[in-house]
Amino acid sequence: MGRARTVFSFFIAGTVALFFGLSALASARDGARAPATLAGRVVRVADGDTLTLRDERGTNTVVRLAEIDAPEHCQPFNRRSRASLAELALGRRVTVEVLDTDRYGRSVGRVTVEGESETVNRIQIRRGLAWFYARYARDESLRTLAREAARAGAGLWAEKDPTPPWLWRRQHPRGTGCRPSGG
After folding, report:
1. 106 an active-site residue?
2. Residue 87 bears catalytic tag
3. Of these residues, 67, 80, 82, 106, which one is catalytic?
4. Cα(141)–Cα(132) distance, rounded to whole angstroms?
5. What is the pLDDT of residues 128-169, one digit of tens each?
6. CATH code at 55?
7. 167-182 pLDDT, tens per residue?
8. CA dihedral (119, 122, 125, 130) positive or negative
């Protein structure tokens, strides 16, 4: 009878430990999720679709603009795209509607400058300085904006046959054959 009681005690202890372990794991996983919104001041613009936000605690968060893809470092219009995003957001307070976290740990979202109603994501497309990134898009209205920019010959659409960044990256792995462009 002593052995049965010991086995039963180990069974109960193991079950309780498993329950609390799984609960703690679920809580940790839920706590690791990105918040639904971020707010702060833009302190850096890396390119036409990536910026760094500093919140009120002084924490920096790299944000990738959702649903768009801007020209890569050596592509035409890269500098103009980056300059456009800097003009729109650098040094300004923004909110980010976080949609996802990418494989590099960046928050992916829609960025709105304080006091403005249109996202900078939409403005970059409207100006012809980013492509609609259909593969990751949820907002199909951006496709219409991209078509309008192309019809108007805005920005990169002034080029005869602009190469989307996702194709350019395949053609130039890790920047091979990269010559910085003037645009």
Report:
1. yes
2. no
3. 106
4. 10
5. 999 999 999 999 999 999 999 999 999 999 999 999 999 999
6. 2.40.50.90
7. 999 998 876 667 655 5
8. positive
